[in-house]
## 1
Amino acid sequence: MKGSAKVIEVLNDVLTAEITAINQYFVHAKMCENWGYQLLYEDTEERAVEEMKHAEKLIERILYLEGIPIVTKIEKINIGSTVEAQVNNDHGLEKIAIQRFNSAIKLCNDESDAGSRELLEHILLDEEKHADDLEAYLQEIKDMGVQNFLVTQVHKKEKS
Ligand SMILES: [Fe+2]
Ligand SMILES: [Fe+2]
């Protein structure tokens, strides 16, 4: 089905943001794994995988609308050199994503593309959850201090 050029363009913009997030989160996840913060590693990697699923859905939708998915573009990646910086940078990315999704949803409404709107609304809820999870980390860091917070993220392997 031939889609609106404006919708295809906005879906590609959102796709670029997802690809950026995938890369930032994977690097952060691997840094946490390297530092031994197993729980943060697992959580951040899971978030990266969710962004990958978003990218997959967006590519499918762009193809359905007979557009060309652009997977070669990427925005600035902000790697944090500490856990606190990583959480702040990831939270910043999610906040921008939420704004972007909301304006993309508005555009889909203007272009009478309810299918694309519904997909974006679905993904938006995931991004809100991501932002919420990161806000909880920031609150914990603020309340208990970063050192105490990091203690909660080290998962010692059970001795067998
Ligand atoms: Fe996403
Ligand atoms: Fe996200």
## 2
Amino acid sequence: MPKHIIAVLNQKGGVGKTTTAINLAAYLAREGRSVLICDADPQANTTSGLGFDKNSLDATLYDVLFSRSQLDKTIHATNIKNLYLLPANGSLAGAEVELVAQQGRELKLKKNLELLEYDYVFIDCPPSLGLLSVNALCAATDVLVPVQAEYYAMEGLSQLLSTISQVRQALNPSLNLLGVVITLYDNRTSLSEQVKSELERHFGDKLFSTMIPRNIRLAEAPSFGKSIHEHDKWSKGARAYKALAQELENKLDG
Ligand SMILES: Nc1ncnc2c1ncn2[C@@H]1O[C@H](COP(=O)(O)OP(=O)(O)O)[C@@H](O)[C@H]1O
Ligand SMILES: [Mg+2]
């Protein structure tokens, strides 16, 4: 069993799930933890963001879920030491539909991930609360929710929390809401401030005190197949993800 399996989930697209999964995973790997990042989004942004060509993969998470490829043969070492990738590509889009007819359809990912030994597994979820995300929640020990500092930030969060509690009741009683992290924060706007106060009111100490600023260097890094540390370790974005990784480790170990 991996020590921690963290589903990075928000059914909205563009809130920073993939950026958060890649950069947290990369920092923890740099600290010497063994880390797997599991790309559970058919858009496969994690896979390409780590420098893999999603169109030339022999096998992906899709094949693993349907027992068409062995897990250890589907996991790749990345160019970051200690960081491994279970990749995705567009074929995973079919899994949402094909899983419906399968027995134990919510537990396919769990059955596979529990065979592994890592300090951390991050699951980068798709922007939906469908079966792939439910699989992620069943496999996970913890959920991390990135929330974009924007006007509609709170919208959808109650549905997300209710999905988490349904999964807890029916399938994964020990699933822990690790926390909510504010992404794409812009301290020049009062809107960002408002979103922060509202999230504080709702989530209390479940809100990470580290906020991820809007930072162009973070947006550039995936096009070079790099984490933010490798792309520009002195950028605001790099410092923020480093602090977030430390805060996450303190929360989990403390
Ligand atoms: N803090 C940030 N500052 C600037 N751009 C960001 C930041 N976080 C994410 N982005 C960019 O915003 C877009 C959406 O982020 P992404 O992590 O892919 O979100 P999601 O996985 O939730 O869809 C991407 O182009 C990404 O590079
Ligand atoms: Mg994504």
